[in-house]
Amino acid sequence: MALRYIPMPHNHAERLRGSALDAYGNQPERRISDGDGIPCRYCLRNVDRGEPYLVLAYRPFASAQAYAETGPIFLHADECTGHDGQSLPPILAASKEYLLRGYGGDDRIVYGTGGVIAAERLTERAEELLARTDVDYVHVRSAKYNCYQCRIEIA
To answer: InterPro entries given for it (predicted)?
Structure first.
């Protein structure tokens, strides 16, 4: 099964780098990376030491509803090249494990799909979840902090 790794949409990244407010109505905070685990949700690479980045609240859902989690993410403060969607993103090789959850077409969690998975099983587990008829896409989140990483769909 071919997978597609979907970053934050380009228009969201551009607006947030401009004057747009985050999901909580706050201006994103600008910081300088120490080079240690600052994953950009648009290029899906870590922000290098010395580079500026934004910290902001992000809701990776089209609308606010009970299952539309909002949480902190990082984004290069300056323009970066969005992830190609085809290769395993570098940020998904940075930890030992990740939280994966399946979602239905109604953007609700499909119960029984959530779980912490070893990094080496991430692709395998995403394929298992996406093979289900009730799962439209998968979210990858940090196993430690529950921060949204990216979305996975069938290519």
So the answer is: DUF1203
